[in-house]
Amino acid sequence: MNRLQNASSPYLRQHADNPVDWQEWGDQAFTQARDADKPVFLSVGYASCHWCHVMAHESFEDDEVAAVLNERFVPVKVDREERPDVDRVYMDAVQAMTGHGGWPMSVFLTHEAIPFFGGTYWPKDDRGGMPGFLKVLDAVHRAWTSERDKITATGARLAAHLEQTNALAGPTGPADADLAAQSAAACVYAWDDRRGGFGNAPKFPQAMTIDFLLAHALRTGDEGAVRAAIHSLDAMARGGIYDHVGGGFARYSVDADWVVPHFEKMLYDNALLLRAYTHGALVAGEQGARSRFRRVVRESATYLIGELCHPDGGFYSSTDADSEGVEGKFFVWSSPEFREVVAEAGEDPEVWATFFDVTEGGNFEGATILTEPRPRDEDDEEFDAAYRRVRAALAARRAGRVPPALDDKVLTSWNGLAIGALAEAGAALGETAWVVAARRAAGFVRDNLMVGGHLHHTWREGHGARVPAFAEDVALLAQGLLCLYEADGDPAWFAWARELAADADARFAEAADGAPTGAYFATAHDAETLLTRPKETWDNATPSAASVMADVHLRLAALTGEAEHAARAERVLTRFAPHAQRAPTGFSELLRALERYLGGPVEVAVVGGPDDEATRRLVAAYRETLRPGAVLAVGDGDGDGSTDVPLLAGRERVDGRPAAYVCRRFACRRPVTTPEALRAELADT
What we know:
The protein has 685 residues and is of the alpha+beta class. A five-stranded mixed β-sheet has the order 1-3-2-4-5, with helices on both faces. Strands 13, 14, 15 and 16 form a four-stranded antiparallel β-sheet that branches. A four-stranded mixed β-sheet has the order 21-20-22-23, with helices on both faces.
């Protein structure tokens, strides 16, 4: 039994019975390494990582490997989701050493936590051109004992390289319409116009790129941008990356046709895709696509709330790719079982086998991953009723299988994404229950991850809140709360988002000569000191704190009229503009913020009682389409706290009737009282 049995991370607890003498990241491990004159072996992964499980089974559960690790190294396990700062520092090192990265990540460190050799997955023995892990351990041990001077020199050079890379040097650039147009053109060029998505296999959903293209198309009328976005959404919704039985999306597709997914489901992917499909449903010009996207939104929101939600409202992190030790076993179907279930539901097995492309040979190791190769008429009510019956029957049968493992830790940053996505989806589609779910998640974070007035990164039942918040937590929660405020009008969410934005700037923002540069560090000024202090730069699997803070400050500038918010957003945009120009799909959330900047600010204030039907009609008119450059503030203005939001201050009803004010930079037009008049005003902004 090693020292992980009391860890809060489900991933670390998966390794508690390994014969490897694991311990968690901390001073104790490095003190032990120094006293014993051994290098540290750092292994980083996460609970739903398939290849992490493979390496664990092949090597970390193996007595021979464990004996070598325990004798010659100090083994340390890290959950990358619990400690993204540690993961970021050493992933940068592995990429610098090998030219690529991934998980599981395996790094050898000196007593001073300086990396000198690393990689990702190694099999126990030589295989497929890869050296075996035992051979790697032996080579590292020999170098440590006989070539320490070379290790020290290598580590010093690598540390200097990481520090230089992290400095993010270089000129700023104009954040203007030309940058947006060039970036959109580059994204459209990367679009797979036959199969949807961007680039080649493996294909990731790239929800942020889709969101940017939709916003750009709305502002400019760029038909290529909207085609690429809508086609990609459609292809993913009909592919195997989408769970046609339970809803929600897998992490990525192994193939270019979206058929074979990597089966783990991540909260952040599903939150970002829920947001993108909501926006797609508002923008799509073709009725079938609009209806299909609305269905995907409904099914995905139901999945999040039904499968990934703690009873008190917070959202869990992920589910595994494997069940019973087999990748995808929970999700795939044999032809006989599929046909049996459909027949029991009273439907024609041949019709539905054709619809979901179920064949005897299958499309994945002899079984079938359900897909929808030919789009259906989403507005055919009779077909839809049959679809629901078949889907319910398949779900009931699948519920009897052993499900993939659940990573039940709650991360503030990913919950911020879910709060924002559910709030937006609920407001756009008129689903109050989703807004309520977003509200409950925000309350969960407030009640469980705010301790002593300080926000934390991770929480788990029985372990409480752990690890001080990172920049991603502060930024994504602030963004989610502003979306929630627009959905339910509670000024408490606005006030909390405002406090979080101030905290981000006080404790995470980089400054030069006393002035903010536009960059944000991943860790707070008073956080644990690591080899380097990584910055939040590009939009990877999740949006970077810098990109999100640009959006947060632009929203706050519109809601408050405070010029400093706009100035801070502009600094972020100009700081990263040259990088976005070189790699637009790596800065898609930043470019989405740029579209807000270019298309706004449009400030819409609706004054009226929340239960007044006239108020609801005005709000519904605003929500009929995506408005990337606008903000919405709704309040009665009659002792309900709504006037704590500056945009609502001084606004009054018109002749006792609810009224809408459309403003630009706090210069407002005459208020209107009908949805038709509001639509006309918005069309003229």
